[in-house]
User: Which sequence fits this backbone?
């Protein structure tokens, strides 16, 4: 009897086959089946078309680093229930790159287009977040607006009228195209 004969005994062979079977079953349950279901789910999800204005706004969103403070990923956790259902792979279909975010200092934006539907509110918030949410820690983005005399505002133009300290008396903020594009992107962000 050699020193390796115990490796091929009937009881050892039963153990090896049992472990191999368990490994195969777990591999299927943990890796292969979920990946296959996700692949079929993603294939069935149509990629929504994004308007040109929203596409330009997405570029601004990335350039400003909004994803450093706002996630677009709802975790399957109780604390995330105010933001909607948990995110799925299909939510990022066609998004290149996907903007899941890196952390969440501000609210999650994965369904902001469903939760905050007013473009006017979003413009005020972009100009100075504390004008809408006094406790906000988000920085202001006044360079996306022209500050002009209220008397010189173009007729029918969307202007932001704010009291001091947000704007000086007699002044209004006129959104630049970049501000409108960024808001168009935010309003387009919806979970499917």
Assistant:
């Amino acid at each position: 009897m050699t020193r390796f004969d115990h490796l091929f005994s009937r009881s050892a062979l039963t153990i090896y086959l049992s472990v191999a079977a368990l490994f195969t079953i777990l591999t299927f349950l943990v890796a292969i089946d979920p990946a296959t279901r996700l692949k079929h789910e993603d294939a069935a999800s149509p990629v929504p078309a994004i308007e040109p204005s929203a596409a330009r706004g997405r570029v601004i969103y990335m350039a400003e680093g909004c994803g450093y403070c706002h996630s677009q990923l709802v975790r399957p956790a109780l604390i995330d229930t105010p933001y909607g259902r948990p995110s799925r792979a299909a939510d990022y279909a066609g998004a290149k790159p996907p903007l899941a975010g890196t952390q969440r200092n501000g609210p999650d934006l994965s369904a902001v287009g469903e939760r905050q539907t007013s473009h006017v509110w979003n413009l005020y918030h972009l100009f100075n977040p504390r004008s809408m949410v006094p406790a906000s820690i988000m920085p202001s983005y006044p360079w996306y607006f022209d500050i002009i005399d209220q008397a010189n505002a173009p007729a029918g133009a969307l202007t932001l009228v704010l009291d001091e300290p947000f704007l000086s008396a007699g002044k209004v903020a006129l959104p630049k195209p970049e501000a409108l594009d960024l808001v168009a992107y935010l309003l387009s962000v919806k979970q499917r």
User: Anything to note?
Assistant: The chain is about 40% helix and 5% strand. The longest helix spans residues 10-44. Helices lie at 10-44, 52-63, 112-115, 119-127, 177-188. The mean pLDDT is 84.
